[in-house]
């Protein structure tokens, strides 16, 4: 009776629909085995929902946003189940979906239905066991084993259509897909094909006969990292882990079978005997640099590398020992590390240029007519002379040539001076070099030659000359009252001339000179020691110049103005008459003399670029001993035969 009533209600609805559409024809029973004809034209979707509800007995809750008209053409009869599938498809085409909720079904927009009441499946088995109701929405959670979820997440949306939703979860390499059940099934087939199961990873040990496990493992890791990145571009997740056991010299590998075969081949290629002369101990003989200095530099670099967290240039510990006897380096390092060190050492072991330095240290008294450097013009440049400071100690003036041929005006006395000169000194119209000045003043009591050093040194190496006397100095005197014995302790000090010059060659044949000049002299003096007694204790007077000069090759620098003053008192009288009271002063003479002197330092450096230039310099020095030039005063003066090596200085 109930079935009959139900059929009557269904037929009533069908008749209403048929009258509304004019084209729907329904016949047969409403049971699951009955077949009906569906033919609707521009029918309100709510009418179709009512029709399916009466036909299937399902209760529907319709969202207010569901609306519109639909058209269905069904020339052949369909079963009740097939009619429901057609109904689901009509809803999906119109962007609506059915979401089961207990004993009722919700009809709502597709965008809302994705996140509400959608059944979630987590495996292939649950997907197969699920009994969908047509094109219902389903969420599938897939954990990928071998493929990249990020890469597949770009492909799957094309399989499930625009109404589907794909979410990638990188931490677990998973995909979350929401789509109609039929689309989910198709997407699952594609995913299973791409994410094929591979063999379980294998673990192997590779003992090495010749190679170093740490070095081999590092090389393998670099190669495999690149290979894995290339495979991931195609959605394939390769697996390889390489580690070195340095204690047993074994390479440990965990990888899939395909990658394991590749690693086995690479290890066989790398584990070969070291060629002759390519072992871990290496020997480098240095030609120019000092082995101790180079070893110190390289060891410092190696130590700093060990203390940093950045990527290391050298693969393992390196040891460098300097052999002073042979000026060589003994290096313990892997061949690849040695090649890096060798390149660095070759750059350090370069042939350095040499610098020939001529210097003249001379004292001139204040009453001398030879007072060059007395009237330099402060901070001016004329011709090829750069001058700084001013000084005038009397006894004559010096005028240097300018571009106009005129000299510089005189300055008041005082101050230290210096000059860099490219032209020659001249005396009475005759030009002389430093060698000539030296010879000219040797026989003059107004000038004292302290030192004339000529030094040849390497670039950036200190050259030193000491012309000193080791003088004893009383450090302490102890007087014993009981025995009246004086005990003295003595120290020895160097007194004389000390010169240190460190040249540094720059660009364009320029030089920087670090100059330290010290001139000391002993002065006798009396020191009171008690009981009205005095002790002769030598004291010293010291004059020091320390400066840095920048100049061109072949220029002469003059440093002056280091003044000293010695005072003397002399008393003389006529014997007998000088002792007469009052009138004795008529026969006495008291003379007080103050002697002033000025220290001059002349320095001329020459860059020696090759052995040929050094040989040429030696030849010129030899000729300078035999070649003389006679001035107007008839004095024979040795001259340089090649002015290019030692440009003369001009005195007027």
Structure description:
- This protein is α+β, with helices and mostly antiparallel strands.
- Strands 18, 19, 20, 21, 24, 25, 32 and 33 form an eight-stranded antiparallel β-sheet that branches. A four-stranded mixed β-sheet has the order 8-9-11-10. The protein has a four-stranded antiparallel β-sheet with strand order 26-27-28-31, with no helix packed on it.
- It is built from 14 helices and 35 strands.
- Among the domains are: 34-117, Ribosomal Protein S8, Chain: A, domain 1 (2-Layer Sandwich), CATH 3.30.1370.120; 202-270, Ribosomal Protein S8, Chain: A, domain 1; 281-350, Ribosomal Protein S8, Chain: A, domain 1.
- It is 26% helix and 37% strand.
- Strand 13 and strand 14 form a beta hairpin.
- The relative contact order is 0.07.
- Mean pLDDT is 71; it is low at 1-29, 368-417, 423-432 and 628-652.
- It is elongated.
Major sheet size, sense and barrel closure: 8 strands, antiparallel
Cα separation of the termini: 149 Å
What would CATH call the architecture of the domain at 34-117? 2-Layer Sandwich
Shape: elongated
Number of helices: 14
Residue share in β-strands: 35-45%
Structural class: alpha+beta
Radius of gyration: 54 Å
Per CATH, the class of the domain at 34-117 reads: Alpha Beta
- State the share of residues found in helices, binned by percent: 25-40%
Could you list the spans in which at least 5 consecutive residues all have pLDDT below 50? 1-29, 368-417, 423-432, 628-652
Question: And the CATH topology of the domain at 34-117?
Answer: Ribosomal Protein S8, Chain: A, domain 1
Total beta strands: 35
The mean pLDDT is: 71
